[in-house]
Amino acid sequence: MDAPTMLQVTRHGDDGHVVEVALDRPASMNAVSTDFSREITATMTALSADEDVRAVVVTSTSPRAFCVGADLKERNGFSDAQMMDHRLVTRKAYRAVLDLPMPAVAAVEGFALGGGMEIALSCDLVVAGTEATVGLPEVGVGVVPGGGGTQLVTRRVGWSRAASMIFTGRRMTAKEAHRLGVLDELVEAGTARDRALEIAAQIAGNSPVAVRNAKRAMRLGMGVDLAAGLEIEDGAWRATAFSGDRKEGVAAFAEKRAPRWPGR
């Protein structure tokens, strides 16, 4: 018998270019276990290889929580060797979200704590309902954020705001997190998923070649100086300008019609 799935994957729209990945361990409020991490990695890896996917939305089936972070009940019985094995598995999961070549939008309702917040931060945009609670509380249980939190939140909000968030391990309301820049968009409670799907549909209407190359240039350019970043951008421009998408985009504009992107 196959193991029960912990993710619900749904394609949206007539063309299926928007894919929703819903975290689905409601009994544990989507706590990140070893098996859950493996499923996240496998799912995101498959989506990365699918050229028909233009945007991914990460949601939760539970209104109580996007994800509460690590499965501490599972970790409680680990030896040091098991803890290291678990680390290798979970790190791949967060990286699989971060490395999606197409834009990803997280829709946060309820709690997004620790590794759950890091799943959201690994997406390109984070939409949250006004009643959400977020934070990186890892220092309170004797570890540091290990799913990219120390790097991703610092890049979002700067050193001092990230330091306040991580060193205290405090929980924040969605309103405070939005004000600090941790969250990108704040919407009425219960509507984050709808808004994230709306954003994803707008993204999916654009050239998939252009969007993927823009994301790649932005990500690669973050770690280099301006001159090197401009060279990365030029490479992205060249890869896009001589694609079928550019030819179709110009033709559609001239003919005053919606483009039919070849996506190659």
From TrEMBL:
Keyword Lyase on entry: yes
Keyword Lyase on entry: yes
CDD domains with a match to the protein in the record: crotonase-like (cd06558)
InterPro entries: ClpP/crotonase-like_dom_sf, Enoyl-CoA_hyd/isom_CS, Enoyl-CoA_hydra/iso, Enoyl-CoA_hydra_C
UniProtKB keywords: Lipid metabolism, Lyase
PROSITE patterns with a match to the protein in the record: ENOYL_COA_HYDRATASE
Domain of life (superkingdom): Bacteria
Pfam families in alphabetical order: ECH_1 (PF00378)
Homology family: Belongs to the enoyl-CoA hydratase/isomerase family.
Listed PANTHER family: (7AS)-7A-METHYL-1,5-DIOXO-2,3,5,6,7,7A-HEXAHYDRO-1H-INDENE-CARBOXYL-COA HYDROLASE (PTHR11941:SF169), ENOYL-COA HYDRATASE-RELATED (PTHR11941)
Name the record gives this protein: Enoyl-CoA hydratase/isomerase family protein
